User: Fold these one by one.
Assistant:
Number 1:
Amino acid sequence: MVDEIYKYTGGTKIVQLLLLAIAKLCWVLPSVYSEGEKSIVLGPIESSLERKQVPVDLGRTSPALASRVGKALSLHGGLRLSDTSSSVFSANFSPVGSGGIRLELLKGNPKTVFTTLSVENESMELALSLACDQMVEKILGIPGFFSGKISYLSSLSGHKEIFVSDALMSSARPQTSFSKITFNPSWSNKGDGIFFTSNRKVFNNIYFLSIADRKITTIANYRGSNLAAVQNPRSSQTALVLSTSGNPEIWLAANPLSRPVRLTKNRSNESGPTWSPDGRRMLVTSDARGKPQIYEVSLSTGKLSRIATNVSSHCTEPAWNPVHSNIFAFTAAVNGGFQVCLYDFRLRKTKILTSGNAHHIQPSWTNDGRHLYLTQRTSSGATRIMLLDTEFEEAKPTILHNEKFGNCSQVSFYYPN
C-alpha cells in the first residue's frame, strides 16, 4: 500500500517523509493491516504516560501476593505491570514463615538476578508493603510509601469518625465512636497517635488519641473554639489554631501538653498550619486581605507574608512537600470549583493538578514527596479519597475505595522512619 501511494504521488522527498511518519504511526496502532492473504498484527498503542513508566512483571509471584503487588504498581505511577516479554524488571515475591517476604529482582535480556532481599514484620501484609517499598527504591531510586498509614474521616456510622487504614486502603479500622462532630485528624510526628478536634464534650476541643491503648488526652479546651493541632516534624513543638483571643489565631506549644503562646496577633482568621520539612518555617491560610490566601508566618514575630500564587482569590489548605522544600500543594477556587494546585517557590509559579466537574480538596503528601492524597467531592456531596502521582502531567487521581468505606475525607499520612 505504501509503495502504491509512493508511485501515485511521484515519489517526492516530502511524500517519502510523510509516508515514513504514517508507517511509524501504523506500527503502534492496535489494528491488523491486510495485503492480499497476508496479515500483519500490529502492536497496541502505548500512551505517553506508559512510555514514562518502568514496566515490571511479577514472574513467579503467587496469585495471592500478585494481587496486592499489582494494586501497588498500578497506584504508584512510576511503575506499571507488564508481561515478561516487554518488562524491564521481573519481581518475584515469595512468603517466608508467618511474617516474612523474600523479594528477588531480575533485570536485562535475558533477565538475571539484580538484587535479593528479605523483609520480616509482625504481619505478612505489612512485610509485603515494606518489600514493595524496597522494590520502588531499587528500581526508581526513591522511597516507597506503601507501608505508610493514613488517618481520615468516614461517615460510615452516620457520624464522621476517625479511621486508620494502610496506605492503599485495603482495610480500615475505626478509632472513635463519639457520634458527634469530629474533624482535623493529624498524625503525631512519631506515629503513636492522632490529634483531632471534636465537640464530644459540647464545645470544640483538641484531643490526642493514643493508637496503642486508645487513651484520649485533652490538648486544648480553652474558651472559644479549639480547632486544630499539627506537630512539628522535627520536634515536639505543636502548632494550634485557637480562638480564645477572639478570632482564630496560630499558637505554639513547646510540646502538646505545655501551655501555648500566641504567635499571630491580628484581626484576621488563620487556619491550616503546615510545617516545612525542616520544621523551621510554616505556611497558613489567612483572610488578612478579605479573602483566604496562603501566607508564610514568621515563627519569631508572627508576621504574615503573602505567597502570590496568582491562580485564584480563594486559596486554602496548604500542604508543604516533605521532600522538596520549594513546593507546597494547596486548594484553590478555579473555573467554578475547587482544585488542587502546586506552587513552586523557585519558579514562583502555580500548576493546577486536578480538573473536572467534581471538587478536589484537602491535599496531603506521602513521604516520597511525589504522591498526594486528596478528597474528591461530587455535586451530590459524596466524598471519597483519591491518590495522585504529581510527577507526570498525564497522571489522573485514582479512587482508593468503594462505598463500603462510607464518605471519606481529610487524610493525614504517616510513614514509619
Note: The mean pLDDT is 90.
Number 2:
Amino acid sequence: MYLVTGATGKTGGQTVKHLLAKGAPVRAFVRNEEKAAPLKEQGVELAIGDIGDADAVAKAMDGVEGVLLTLPNGPNQLDWEMGVLKQAEAAGVKHMVYLSSTESNSDNPRRIPQVHVKVAEAVMASSMGWTIMRPNFFMQGIYPFAGQVKANDAFSFPAGDGTASMCDVRDVGEVAAIILTGGEAHYGKTYDLTGPDIVSMHDVASLLSKTLGREITYKPMPLQAFHDYLASVLKSDWHVEGVVELMQEMSEEGGLDYTTDTMGELLGRPPMNIAQFIEEHKGMFGG
C-alpha cells in the first residue's frame, strides 16, 4: 500500500493516477471527503482527517510501505510535515519520498526553501529508506495567463527577465510513482527534476505567438503589485511573503536556470518541453 498526501493537488493527484496505472494499491490522505470522491471512484482508499491530527495520520499509516509527502506551502507546513514523518517512522514505513524543490538549498534563506531543507534533513536522518524529489517551476504555472492572453493578447507575471527550466507536473507525478514502486533502487537518492529547456517569460510569449498565430506580449509585473494581489486572495501573510520571496529570486537573481537529464532517465523517455506543452494547451489560450 502506498500513501499519498496532497492527493487532491497537482503533484499528488498525478502520482495517484500513475500508481493506479501500475496496478498499485493507493491510499490518499485527504481532509475533504467530497473533494476526494473522484479518487474513491477510481479505486483509491481514502483516509479522512486533518494532517495536523497525529492520531489520524498514524491510522493512515497502517500497512503502508511507501509514502509521498507533499503538502501546500503555509505557516504550518513544517510542523505538519515533521508530524507525518514521525508517524511514518513509528509505523515502520519502509520508504519516504519527499517533494522539495530545486531552489531549496541550505544557503537559501527564504522561508519556503528553508521548510523544505529542514524536512529533507529530517527525512534523511530517519530510519526509513528515503528519496528527495526536487522539481523546478511547473509548466502548469502558465495556466493563469490564459484569460489574460485571450482577452488582451498579453500577460503579466512577476518573473522579470528571469529564466527557469520548466517541467510538467504530469512528468513529476509519473516519476514519483516510479520511485515509490521502485523501492530500494531509489533509496538515498536526491533527484533534481527539470524540463529540457531554459526559458524566460519572454520566450513563453514568443512560443504562444508562434502557436496561436498572433502576437502575444509579456509584461513583467512589479513585485509590489504581485504582493498586493496575493494579499487579496491568500489568508496567510506567511504564504504571501513566501511566494513573493520565490518570485523575487526568479526575477532579480536570474531564476532557476539549469537543466538535468534526470527526469528523462527516470521516465525512460524525453520529458515534456515547453513548446509541446503550449501546443497541447493552445485551446485554453484562444488557439
Note: The radius of gyration is 19 Å.
Number 3:
Amino acid sequence: MSHVDRQRAQRLMSERGLDALVLGKPENFAWATGCAPGVAAFWRRAGAALALVPADAGLPISAVVTELFAPGLRRALGDEQVRSHADWIETADIRPWQAGDESAAVLAERAWDAAGRPSQGLSRPAAFDARAAFAALGELLARHGLARARIGLDLDYWPVLDFQLLTETLSEVRWVDASATTGAIRAVKSPGELERLRLAAAIAEAGMHAALAAVGDGVSRDDIADHWTAGATADARQRGLRLTGQWEYVSVGPLPWGGNAAVREGSVIKFDVGCLVDGYSSDCGRTFAWGRAAPRAREIMAALQEAFEAGLEVLRPGHLLSDVYARASSAMRRAGFMRFSRGHFGHSLGRDTFCEVPPFVAAQAHMPIEAGMVLAFETPFYVDGEGGFIIEDQFVITDTGAQACWSLPRGLVQLG
C-alpha cells in the first residue's frame, strides 16, 4: 500500500508548479508504491524502478519496474498503471501444462509462446537497460497527458549519467529537482509508517535493558553492544517480527571513538542505537556512567539536558524546526559553551539509506513542525578526554505536542 498522502502531495506540488514526481530512489519507490523495487535496484542506478506520482490526486500512481517484479506491482496498482522492461533473469511459467508428460524444454517454449516472446532476436541486458525503462516511463507520461509537463525528480539520488540519458530519451519533459518537495511530502507519516517507527523504537529500548544489565567492571564496549543487539533481536522475535536491520554507536570511556575500551570506575557509556522494521529506522540515545561520574562529565550532561529541555519546549506545531535549533544552541551558550556549534539537533525518520532523513532540526530549517512528523531530537557532544555524550529521543508529533517513544530517563544515570 502506498504511503503517499495524495492531498498533501497535491498541495505541495501545486505550490512549486510541479505536474508530477518521478521517483528513482529505491526507498522513495517503495514509499510511493508500497512495493519492492526489485533486485535490479541493488545497483543504485536510476531506471531499475520508477514511480510516477501525478500532482492531481485524482490520477493513479503508476510505475515502471523490471519484468520479474512486475506481477506484484500490477496486483498493487492495476495492470494499466504498470510498465516493465527486461532484466537479466530468465524465467518461464509452465504451470498451465504441468499435468502432461512433455519435457521441460517443450513446456518452456510453450510458456514463451503464450507470453508473446518473439521466436528469435531476444537479447537480455547484463543487468537492465535504463533506456528501455525511460521509454516505458514515456508511455505512462503520455497516457496521463504529462509528455510535456514540468516534472520533479529526486535528483539527490540520480547519477549524472542516468539523468543525462533520461533527458535525452524524454527531451520534451521539463525536468526539475524536487528532492526538497519529496522530503516535505514524506515528512508527515502515514499510519503504517507511524506503527513501524514506534515498533522499531520499542524494540531498540528493549535492547537497552539487556545492554545495561551487562555493564560492569572490565566489560568491553563490544560485549555491551552485543548484548544490545541480542536483546533487541529477542524482543522482535517475541513480537513475531524479524528486524530488517540494526545499528549501534556505543562508546565506553574517555575517548568517544576509542574502539573496544573496557568499563572502569567513572567510565562514560554512550548509546546511540536504532532498529529497522520493514526498512523504517528508529533513532534514540542515552548516556550513563559506571560508578560516580567525574565532575566534568556531570557538567557536560547538565548542559546537554538543559539544551534538550529548551528545544523540547518548542518541538510542537506552531513552531519552526529552526526555533528548536535556536533554543538548544542558546542553552548551550548559557551553560558556558560559548562556541559550541552543531550543524543540526536532529532529523526526520523514515525508510531510507540512513537513519538521518531530511528535514533536519537546523538553523536554516524554517519549516513548520506538523502533526504526523516523526523526529529524532538530540543534543550530542563528543569530548576527547571525557567521552561521548548524547540525549536523543524519537518523537511522534501530535496536534498538542511531542510524544516520546522511549521511557528511559534522559539525564546522566550512574550505574553500579
Note: The longest strand covers residues 387-398.
